[in-house]
Specification:
The complex is a heterodimer of chains A (306) and B (274).
Chain A: H1 2-15, E1 19-23, H2 32-37, E2 42-44, H3 49-61, E3 65-71, H4 80-88, E4 94-99, H5 117-122, E5 128-130, H6 135-147, E6 152-155, E7 177-180, E8 185-189, H7 194-206, E9 211-215, E10 218-220, H8 224-233, E11 237-244, H9 249-259, E12 267-272, H10 283-289, H11 294-305
Parallel strand pairs in A: 1-2, 1-3, 3-4, 4-6, 5-6, 8-9, 8-11, 11-12
Antiparallel strand pairs in A: 5-10, 7-9
Chain B: H1 3-27, H2 32-37, H3 41-49, E1 64-67, H4 73-82, H5 122-136, E2 142-147, H6 154-165, E3 171-177, E4 180-181, E5 184-185, H7 186-189, H8 195-201, E6 205-210, H9 214-222, E7 232-237, H10 260-272
Parallel strand pairs in B: 1-2, 2-3, 3-7, 6-7
Antiparallel strand pairs in B: 4-5
Classes of the chains: A alpha/beta (306), B alpha/beta (274).
Chain lengths: 306, 274
């Protein structure tokens, strides 16, 4: 996915001279072509994420589109106040891109996990929050992000993620993508953990339980209509995310259901428990360990339909 | 700067001090010492140095000025109001319910380039503006006024290193160096001495001036950059609370509030300094 993102960004930068990349010494093997093609629109601020974000804000305020880019939680948590006070308060045209959302860098430990980011970023006024699930969504959402005027948080995957879509798609800020339909229940997800949602829905279908599967790639603003349709047209809702249970995608869906008077639908959030992930392992293994594996989705659907 | 212009700067500084005292008293707010500390610098900057236009505040070729020590923002607001960026009456709506003016400056006010209030934010953004201007071949300059406290922040030093690395000579940092901060003397908290040497070692061109000698302030900013291919720093030795004898060089006036009696004493002193 990171390759898909960088390729698309490069292609946009070739036709839009306003695009700058502002780095904090991360991006080896991916950002070199941008740096070589546009040396005057590229800067490595060194290992200094606060400065990276402030510089990006200043570059954007001169009429440009500034992209900050790093891995996991580095370009969000270390520089949160710069994102809040500088980028969001000034509604600056800064795009904050992370590679390796969730536990993509599982074995590296909690310092490299981005598992609170959705809650924190979506609490910031003016911020759009996007989380693509595969390469097709990455490309479409990169386009949507760069066309949008204002702050965007883009939670990209890492590498080797399977395609969940069959080919290129259209995506828009505030939209969602339905991957398959069914009446039994709806499974909403955001991000690369969607691979588990898809496998679970496929396996449930083989057992005669047909589910709707929806990628909520735009977490803020969120596709309220898709959520309310699911509450009306299917018998239960399950949400899946690679994120702490507090404040993420499941919380966002629950907020819509309760605010819109649709809170009577059987509902279950699947997310990581509110603990520090101290186990060591790869992303797929860690997902199983922290309650967001394939069986967790299947069990949640079956439990709600009892 | 001729004699008449110097007198205009003196008079503007006196008015700024009076506004600040009245605003802080009425709002029952703090930071008066920080405001008075830079009250002689801002009039020179705004009347003699910056390319800005109160009738066209967003003109594209304006020089960018970021007040990173946003807690002293009332001094900037008073300067802008006196110069016609917005009505003087707005100063009566400082730090109050439904007021126009917050305690820390906001870019929603005409003439305020950037909102600050948490230290360490100004210089990184100024760096980004300087980079953007350079890349586009634009000639406007970027100025950022920092405090002692700003120079405690790691993010400020991240920006100092980056600006030198990229030779942004369209960037000037002004330091309101009163050597006091919220809880005491800077030398007892984070000793910045020798700040000039530190900045030079970090790759900046730096000079020191008396921040209350407006002619010297003008001369320090007249020919920028101080050195080609280097960002410039002018360190103004200032006195916190300058102009009100019972406040001068007393860190307690970082937060201290003004009673009616203290306001009267302070105003008398500033008004008599004419």
């Amino acid at each position: 996915m990171r390759k898909a993102f960088n390729k698309e960004l490069l292609s946009i930068a070739k036709r839009d001279p306003r695009v700058f990349m502002i780095l904090a010494d991360i991006g080896y093997g991916e950002i070199e072509e941008f740096a070589e093609t546009f040396p005057d629109r590229f800067i490595n601020c060194g290992v200094a994420e606060q400065n990276m974000t402030g510089v990006a804000c200043g570059v954007a305020m001169e009429g440009n589109i500034a992209v900050t880019y790093s891995i996991a939680n580095f370009p969000t948590l270390r520089c949160l106040e710069q994102i809040r006070n500088d980028v969001c308060y000034h509604d600056a045209n800064v795009k904050i891109v992370i590679i390796g959302g969730g536990m993509a860098y599982g074995e590296l430990g909690i310092s490299h996990h981005s598992t609170e980011d959705i809650a924190i970023m979506r609490a910031l006024p003016n911020m759009v929050v996007l989380a693509p699930c595969d390469k097709a969504e990455t490309v479409a959402l990169t386009d949507a992000m760069m066309e949008y005027e204002g702050p965007v948080y883009f939670r990209c995957g890492y590498k080797g993620e399977p395609d969940l879509h069959n080919g290129p798609i259209e995506a828009k800020i505030g939209g969602s993508a339905q991957l398959c339909d069914g009446k039994a229940a709806t499974v909403f997800f955001a991000g690369t953990v969607g691979v588990n949602a898809k496998q679970a829905v496929d396996e449930l279908a083989s057992e005669g339980i047909d589910c709707r599967l929806v990628s909520l790639y735009s977490i803020k603003p969120i596709d309220k209509a898709a959520i309310l349709r699911a509450a009306m047209e299917t018998n239960a809702i399950v949400t899946l995310e690679e994120h702490n249970i507090c404040g993420g995608v499941g919380s966002a869906v629950a907020e819509v259901l309760m605010d819109e008077g649709a809170g009577n639908v059987p509902f279950k959030r699947l997310a990581m428990p509110d603990v520090n992930a101290t186990k060591v392992g790869c992303q797929a293994w860690m997902r199983e360990q922290y309650g967001i594996g394939v069986n967790a989705v299947k069990n949640a659907v079956k439990s709600l339909l009892k | 700067m001729n004699e008449a212009e110097l007198n205009t700067c003196h008079e503007l500084a006196r008015k700024v001090r009076i506004h600040c005292l009245e605003m802080v008293h009425k709002g029952k707010s703090g930071h008066i010492g920080s405001m008075l500390s830079m009250a002689d610098i801002l009039p020179v900057l705004y009347t003699q140095i910056l390319n800005v236009d109160p009738k066209n505040v967003k003109k594209l070729d304006r020089d960018r000025f970021i007040l990173s020590k946003g807690h002293g923002g009332a001094a900037l607001l008073a300067t802008l109001a006196e110069l016609g960026f917005f009505p003087l009456e707005w100063l009566n709506e400082y730090y109050c319910d439904n007021g126009k003016l917050s305690g820390h400056i906001s870019h929603h006010i005409p003439g305020v380039e950037f909102s600050t209030g948490s230290l360490g934010h100004g210089l990184p953004v100024a760096c980004g503006m300087a980079m953007g201007a350079k890349q586009a071949g634009k000639k406007h300059r970027v100025f950022c006024l920092c405090s002692d406290g700003d120079l405690n922040e790691g993010s400020t030093w991240e920006a100092i290193m980056l600006a030198a690395q990229h030779h942004w000579d369209n960037l000037t940092m002004l330091v309101d160096y009163n050597r006091l901060q919220a809880l005491g003397k800077s030398r007892d908290i984070i000793d910045l001495e020798s700040l000039k040497q530190k900045l030079e070692i970090f790759g900046w061109a730096a000079r020191e001036e008396n921040g209350h000698d407006q002619k010297a302030v003008y001369e320090s900013l007249r020919d920028l950059p101080l050195c080609d291919s280097k960002p410039s720093a002018v360190i103004y030795r200032t006195v916190k609370g300058k102009g009100v004898s019972f406040m001068e060089n007393d860190y307690r006036w970082h937060y201290g509030g003004l009673t009616d009696e203290l306001l009267a004493m302070a105003l008398k002193e500033v008004e008599e300094a004419k």
